Amino acid sequence: MLWLISDARNDAMLDDALMRLPRGSGFVYRHYHLDGPERWARFQHLRHLAKSRGHKVVLADSALTAREWGANGIYGPPRALYPRRHDMLQIATAHDLRDIALANRLGADAVMLSPVFATRSHPGARTLGPMRFRLMAALAQVPVIALGGMDAHGAQRLNWPRWAAIDGLSG
Q1: 48, 51, 42, 49: which is closest to 60 by C-alpha?
Q2: Domains in the chain, CATH or no CATH each
Q3: Mean pLDDT score of the chain, rounded to an integer?
Q4: Partner residues linked to 163 by β-bridges
Q5: Phi (first) and psi of residue 164, to 5 degrees
Q6: pLDDT of 44-69, one tens digit each?
Q7: Full-prediction pTM beyond 0.90?
Q8: What is the three-class DSSP state of 51?
Q9: What pLDDT score was predicted for residue 162?
Q10: DSSP 84
Q11: Model pLDDT for residues 122-132, shown as the tens digit of each residue
């Protein structure tokens, strides 16, 4: 399954990218660069496009906001997912073994583990690489979504079925 993650950098391409994703993909709306009504209005537009293609829509915000806005779930660090909400999808971000253990303990539905490869957003940052990624992913008790420097080539190189991208799916 593919996941597209929104960002200020890919905003201008999101409409087209959502329409090109295979049916039933996922979309994580972050858009931290927008405030209040502007963020909500952009979400509503993109949610409509995503839903028209059968995509899951997950919001990087509180569960209360996700419910009010009509999202399928929430995205964030494991602690932000507590307490467990059984009526929505909960995707935890993870960068180390502590995050994975906490996501396991708090009942996340999936973990986005990053950064697998080098990214434009964090130049020079330490990456997991394929071997560390697989070792860490094996400790998760839920599906793991590869993130960080991912595109079709990276997914093939990693040989992993679930991946997410910011730039790699919007160009």
Answers
A1: 42
A2: 2-165 (3.20.20.70)
A3: 95
A4: 2, 146
A5: -135, 155
A6: 999 999 999 999 999 999 999 999 99
A7: yes
A8: helix
A9: 97
A10: P
A11: 778 899 999 99
pLDDT at 27 over 70: yes
Question: Which two structure tokens, joined as six digits, stand for 84?
Answer: 């467990």
Q: Which residue has the tokens 């909500």?
A: 40
Length of the chain: 171
* CA 74 – CA 57 distance, rounded (Å): 9
Cβ partners under 8 Å of residue 77, min gap 6: 92, 93, 99
What are 3-26's pLDDT values in tens digits?
999 999 999 999 999 999 999 999
Q: What are phi and psi of 168, to 5 degrees?
A: -70, -15
- In whole angstroms, give the CA distance from residue 58 to residue 104: 19
And the tokens for 116? 């697998």
Q: Six-digit token pair at 168?
A: 């790699």
Beta strands in 17-71 (DSSP E): 26-29, 56-59
Do residues 66 and 74 touch, judged by C-beta distance below 8 A? yes
Q: How far is CA 4 from CA 1, 15, 124, 145, in A?
A: 10, 11, 23, 11
Contact 63, 85 (CB under 8 A): yes
